Amino acid sequence: SNASIDDLLSGTITSFVISAALGESTLVSLEDNQTVANITFTTFRDAFANETVDCVLWDNTFSDTTGGWRTQGCRLISVANSTVQCECSHLGTFAVIFSQPLSTTSDSNQALELLRRVILALVPVILLLAICLQVGALRSLKHGNV
């Protein structure tokens, strides 16, 4: 799969990071369908059902000058329990990223935030109502209307 930049930025590295290089020579990328590196990772945990599994390559020029993980040039071959197989058309630094769709995460967070706000708004109203009822009951007792 090809994750978006947002997915990769919110993803979690779930494997050891592995590097493969040829010393200080300049590397030329091959076509995406030519495999240079066939890597099998053992991840730290199994992927959850709603997570995307991506094979990624570190790119020093990605995201301005800070670098970042990208999927271009790497493809996922298989996922079985905590074993992930990747093929890449570059040498470099590789890892596996598990990421959750941002819309699912933000939708559930928005729902929880709305529920929290409703509860926080209701608590003072209920307390005020309870105080008013208590004061009314005390006044009725004082005047003997009970």
List keywords for this structure.
2 helices; single chain; three-stranded antiparallel β-sheet; 33% helix; alpha+beta; disordered N terminus; 146 residues; rod-shaped
Biggest beta sheet attributes: 5 strands, antiparallel
Level of helix content? 25-40%
**What percent strand?**
25-35%
Q: How many H/I helices?
A: 2
List the helices and strands and how they pair.
Elements: H1 5-10, E1 12-13, E2 18-20, E3 37-42, E4 52-59, E5 68-70, E6 74-80, E7 83-88, E8 92-99, H2 102-143
Antiparallel strand pairs: 1-8, 2-8, 3-7, 4-5, 4-8, 6-7
Explain how this protein is built:
This protein is of the alpha+beta class and 146 residues long. The chain has two helices and eight strands. The strands form two sheets. Strands 1, 2, 4, 5 and 8 form a five-stranded antiparallel β-sheet that branches. A three-stranded antiparallel β-sheet has the order 3-7-6, with no helix packed on it. The longest helix has 42 residues, at 102-143. It is rod-shaped. The N and C termini lie far apart (73 Å). Residues 1-9 have low confidence and may be disordered.
Q: Concise description?
A:
By secondary structure, the chain is of the alpha+beta class. It has two helices and eight strands; from the N terminus they run H-E-E-E-E-E-E-E-E-H.
